[in-house]
Amino acid sequence: MDRALQPSHSSQDIEVSQPLRDRTLALAGLFQAARLAQQLAREGRAESAAFYASIQSILMLDAENIEEVYGGVGGLTLGLEIVRDKLAARTEAPYLEIAKYAIGLIHLTGQLMQHPEMQQAIRRGAETAEAQMKFFESSEDGENVHPNLVEKLAELYAQTISTLSPRIMVNGDHGHLSNPAIAAKVRAALLAGIRSAYLWRQKGGSRLELLLRRKRIAQEAGKLLEGLRES
Q: CB–CB of 42/173 below 8 Å?
């Protein structure tokens, strides 16, 4: 999906901490998307700034770096807080549900990587949506995503990722999930999760790392949040 975000072969020119930083940001994007899907399904709403950043990440196909994908580290505040506070412990039921979605998205992304034609279909769909952004103006506060854009991305998810198995089964309030607008937002959030999981895998992320380096990743997320507070 990304040419500009392929792993670099000149790693000697990059700080040792950069790969961990990049993976932490991508993982935060994944957990943020999973949390947004959970919020929408259970509460019928999602944090607007986080939803905006996650949706925009789908359209940022040729960014120069991870931060640019999300409009800056600040766009991942929600996800970084989840990684910092919950990744190491993983004991609370709400987090376990988020983790379940995240693991499912990682699995589906692994399948996606074996289907280059589907990757191209997603890229074409995202490029089309990006080209039509002038018709999908956000509000003046820059944090509300136009429903037409959400619908387009939700349809892209349904036509591609939803055909893979096993599908992500999102639990929540039936009244919310039966609302077409909210259901579309859930699918768009899941597509954003696929985007982040793809980046995470590109940067060398693996399930083994999640098992063995959870504490270090959580600490890195804390450092990134501290940097936001100081800036």
A: yes
Three-state secondary structure call for residue 6: coil
Residue 45 is classified by DSSP as -
Cα-based distances in Å from 150 to 126, 134, 154, 158 = 11, 14, 6, 12
Three-state secondary-structure class, residue 110? helix
Domain range annotation of the chain: 16-230
pLDDT tens string 106-144 = 999 999 999 999 999 999 999 999 888 766 555 545 468
| Predicted structure pTM score | 0.90
Please name the CATH architecture into which domain 16-230 falls.
Answer: Orthogonal Bundle (1.10)
> Cβ distance 171 to 97 under 8 Å?
yes
Report how far residue 2's alpha carbon sits from residue 143's, in angstroms, rounded to the nearest whole number: 25
Tokens of 13: 């020119």
- Cα four-point dihedral sign 199, 204, 208, 209: negative
